[in-house]
Amino acid sequence: MTAALLQIEALTLRYGGLTAIDSLDLTLEAGSLDALIGPNGAGKTSFFNLVTGLNKQQAGTIRLDGARIDSLSPDRRARRGLARTFQNLRLFTQMTALENVLTGMHLHVAESLFEILTRLGQFRSQERAALREAKELLSFVGLAAAAHRPAGALSYGDQRRLEIARALASTPKLLLLDEPAAGMNPAETAALKDLLLQIKGRGVSMLLVEHDMSLVMQLCDKITVLNFGRKIAEGAPAAVRADSAVIEAYLGVKGAGELRGAGT
Ligand SMILES: Nc1ncnc2c1ncn2[C@@H]1O[C@H](COP(=O)(O)OP(=O)(O)OP(=O)(O)O)[C@@H](O)[C@H]1O
Ligand SMILES: [Mg+2]
Predict the structure, then answer these.
(1) Which positions fall inside the ABC transporter domain (predicted)?
(2) 173 CA distance to ligand 2 middle (Å)
(3) 116 and 53 both lie in a single domain
């Protein structure tokens, strides 16, 4: 049997006395678009921070393509094929949209001035290729016209799509999306849905954290539900929506309405 793309076992993260991720198991198969949902504070962003290496777990293992990555630096993990977007946007607001996408690329940076001088020609052709690729990514996410505008001047929805373009610039195998639809209007959310399907069509696997249940239910192959850092349900959208533990976890919070309203 081939290994899953992402395989998490018994992952645990504590902040002092608070267990943010509690012995979590999770598997994502290559080619899939899965979701990780749960009420506010359930541990979703904490989980992304563990997988990408911004936080270090107290216990458990993380495997990408069958190989342990849980002691690698965030940069090494990115080079293995992991990319993410952030719940709170982290764009370089003064830089143009195009420059932001370029920062997402793994350019082979020369180590010394001597190398730079001797490899200038090679360097320039790499740079030209990077520019072409960055422009292609901007038009892929629908932002071709905004290439030379400062990222900070774009609408909120456009900034979220720019973050996706930047994440794709590293040609990831697995893209972790932290609330990409937050702050989007219905038209932007509909465009986002199409975009995520196109990314899937390019062979990039995704794990989506999202409070827009309609989007999650329509898009995702498998849903994992977290509550207080623990997995309380997992499965196909229809089964998860009908799960009594899930309904209970969302009761009394804003999400209960979202869950009921996510019939389509
Ligand atoms: N740096 C930190 N130090 C201490 N506690 C933290 C820290 N970051 C998160 N927490 C706590 O860990 C728990 C999980 O937080 P996390 O941000 O992962 O939740 P979430 O599921 O992403 O929530 P939301 O839907 O609101 O984004 C919460 O109780 C939160 O208050
Ligand atoms: Mg979060």
Answers:
(1) 6-253
(2) 22
(3) no
